[in-house]
Design a protein that fits this description.
Largest sheet of chain B: 8 strands, mixed
Largest interface: A-B, 50 and 49 residues
Helix content of chain B: 40-55%
Order of helices and strands of chain A: HEEEHEHEHHEHEHHEEEEHHH
Structural class of chain B: alpha/beta
Shape of chain A: globular
Strand order of the largest sheet of chain B: 8-7-6-5-4-1-9-10
Largest sheet of chain A: 9 strands, mixed
Structural class of chain A: alpha/beta
Order of helices and strands of chain B: HEEEHEHEHEHEHHEHEEHHHHH
Strand content of chain B: 5-15%
Distance between the termini of chain A: 32 Å
Strand order of the largest sheet of chain A: 8-7-6-5-4-1-9-10-11
Helix content of chain A: 25-40%
Radius of gyration of chain B: 22 Å
Oligomer: heterodimer
Shape of chain B: globular
Strand content of chain A: 15-25%
């Protein structure tokens, strides 16, 4: 059965018969439910079941499709943890890391600086065991002076464990903090994400292919969206963690709102933007326009 | 390789190689002559030890690039990203625009380039070129700037480039390099803070003792991280100005002891097949180049410990620049394979004798 019947353009079908192979990243946007440990969502056992069902589907297709390379791609799981280690982040990460490793995927953790500092021993062990590939710190503006020394200490620990640090924040703030003068950091590969990227500018040519932006974006309810830019819009949902892979793929093939073939080839078809519209969000301008257009439907 | 797990051995033997992008290094000519250039680029082309290297000023013919783009668009194992690099590719900006448009028409959805931004001397000029780049399908640029680029491309030019890209929707990945003496902070302090804060990404890394950097930078100024690590997830199909095709663009593309084919005489599919069939390259990508240190030491080569190398690319470049070393490693691999087959046959014979 051709599960993606509308993808008839030869430039796509020659290589990309399954748009899901473009979904290289899995974004887990977690939230705490109620009080106490173990109350974070989405539920790890449900995520694990979905992940392994996806692996199984991939393996079956890999054999059926004459060993097509892209069906065996490793993926990156990004988890955004909204609370401190003690409030449940440590327990959640301890459950998530082995699930991700068993699936052969890399794990990236994202936390607010105040929550990430002083990781407990079990998290240090995960870092030392290379169970986490990258660690992203959301930096406040300004960085409180008392947090600079512990941040430096943690960055040095990450580098010693060969975990790549990523710093998201105001670049001037970072320069003032002295962090970028650190010898260990200058000796390493690391990435800075400026806090105002995507903001303020209204590009004249905002639209391009969405292929590089697709991810399995899973929210706190276990709902799955094709990217962070469309998360929370019910009509853009692809399914839930409880559903089988085939059901989700059918929905991608016959999605009533999103034409994936179009999105892969050239991005969304957008009406001309309001010239007064300024991006004050953390999503790209294209995604802002796309969201507004869908919400107006 | 006897210490590998069963899963690692199966991967090493069977998993097809995959590539994140088709990288075309069209020319080794560059308006700059940076002391850290791993390619040894200069206005005249590639230099080695201060002298022009053979075929150093040669550029890759546009018709060969177009053929590679067409063949690449049909390869399963290649992500549809086209990355144009140099030297400095924008020495011929019209050709760059033509190649971007062609790639876009073929269905490449991610079209990117590396440049030092020299062409953005004035803001109107920067706006004009970036608008045309965007219309040709460019999604992002990697903009190289640091202490060593600054004498050739002023910070004001980099600022024009960043601003023009922001205005037309091209993402900017600012690429910085540092040594112990020249830090990232020092480079960032020379650029417009507001533009920096709106840039898509700033990627920071250390300078490695490869190419011209090894000749011109004080050895004590390098950071050394060690050669551990595997590269199978970060491979690119890289075509260099001579037409030779390599599985990466981080150092091996400037070696000549292990070749897989030339785009002028082989199809990309055949070249990828050759890469997949190379036991030596499979060990490098799936098991890590540091695995080759022990056999080389056993063969009498004066290799340093893994920690003494800048990174895995540094060691990879060292090994694959040496024809004798590669020939010996190839022989070693063949012997190991024969030994494994003999052991397997002995095992099966013993097992069948036991059954009888």
């Amino acid at each position: 059965m051709n599960i993606l019947p509308h993808l008839t353009d030869p430039s796509i079908t020659a290589q990309d018969p399954y748009p899901p192979w473009l979904f290289r990243d899995i974004n887990l946007s977690t939230a705490t439910e109620g009080q106490g440990k173990g109350s974070m969502q989405p539920d790890i056992p449900a995520f694990a079941r979905w992940l392994f069902a996806f692996q199984k589907w991939q393996s079956q297709r890999f054999v059926a499709e004459n060993n097509r390379y892209y069906l065996m791609l490793g993926r990156r799981v990004h988890v955004q943890l909204p609370c401190s280690w003690q409030e449940g982040a440590a327990a959640y990460l301890q459950q998530l890391a082995p699930v991700t490793a068993r699936a052969g995927h890399a794990l990236t953790v994202r936390m607010a600086l105040e929550h990430a500092l002083h990781p407990p021993a079990e998290i240090c062990t995960l870092l030392q065991n290379k169970s986490i590939q990258k660690f992203l710190f959301n930096l406040p503006t300004p960085i409180p002076p008392q947090q600079i020394a512990p941040l430096l200490e943690m960055v040095e620990f990450l580098l010693a464990c060969r975990v790549m640090p990523i710093l998201l924040g105001d670049i001037n703030n970072l320069l003032r903090s002295g962090l970028l003068h650190n010898q260990r950091l200058n000796a390493a590969n690391f990435t800075l994400y400026p806090s105002q990227r995507h903001m303020d500018y209204c590009p004249t040519h905002p639209v391009d292919s969405c292929a590089t932006h697709f991810s399995w974006f899973i929210d706190r309810n276990g709902d799955i969206y094709p990217c962070g830019g469309l998360s929370g819009i019910a009509s853009c949902r692809l399914g839930t963690l409880q559903e089988g892979m085939e059901t989700i793929l059918q929905r991608i093939a016959q999605h009533p709102v999103l034409n994936f073939s179009q999105l892969i080839q050239s991005g969304p078809l957008l009406s001309p933007p309001d010239p007064a519209l300024v991006n004050r969000t953390h999503i790209p301008y294209k995604c802002l326009l796309h969201r507004r257009q869908i919400q107006r439907l | 390789m006897r210490d590998l797990s069963l899963t690692q051995r199966v991967t090493l033997a069977n998993k097809p190689l995959g590539f994140n992008a088709l990288v075309v290094e069209r020319t080794s000519r560059c308006n700059a002559r940076c002391s850290i250039c791993y390619q040894g680029s200069s206005p005249q082309g590639k230099e080695q030890r201060g002298e022009e290297s053979p075929r150093g000023g040669q550029d890759l013919a546009p018709e060969l690039i177009r053929r590679a783009l067409l063949e690449g668009s049909r390869l399963d194992c290649l992500n549809k990203r086209f990355h144009l690099a140099g030297g400095e590719a924008f020495l011929d900006a019209e050709l760059c625009l033509d190649l971007f448009s062609y790639a876009h028409a073929l269905g490449y959805y991610d079209i990117t380039t590396t440049t030092n931004g020299f062409w953005a001397k004035s803001l109107p000029r920067a706006r004009s070129l970036t608008r045309r780049m965007r219309e040709a399908g460019v999604t992002s640029i990697e903009l190289s700037t640091d202490h060593w680029h600054a004498p050739f491309v002023k910070p004001a030019t980099i600022n024009h480039c960043m601003q023009a890209c922001l205005e037309c929707g091209i993402a900017v990945n600012l690429r910085l390099l540092a040594t112990q003496e020249h830090t990232h902070a020092a480079t960032l302090a020379t650029l417009d803070p507001d533009l920096l804060n709106h840039t898509s990404r700033i990627t920071c890394g250390p300078v490695f003792a490869v190419g011209r950097a090894a000749e011109q930078i004080d050895a004590d100024d390098f950071f050394r991280r060690g050669a551990e690590g595997r590269c199978f997830a970060v491979l690119n199909l890289a075509i260099v100005p001579s037409g030779d095709v390599f599985p990466c663009c981080a150092g091996m593309d400037h070696t000549d002891a292990l070749l897989f084919g030339n785009i002028a005489s082989h199809s990309l599919a055949d070249i990828v097949h050759n890469m997949n069939q190379s036991p030596l390259f499979r060990v490098v990508s799936y098991a890590g180049v540091a695995r080759l240190l022990k056999p080389l030491q056993e063969m009498g080569y004066a290799m340093q410990a893994s920690e003494a190398y800048g990174n895995m690319c540094d060691l990879c470049t060292t090994i694959f620049s040496d024809h004798k070393m590669v020939a010996d490693l190839t022989r070693y691999n063949a012997q190991t394979e024969s030994e494994q087959i003999r052991l397997a046959i002995d095992y099966l014979l013993n097992a069948s004798t036991a059954c009888v």
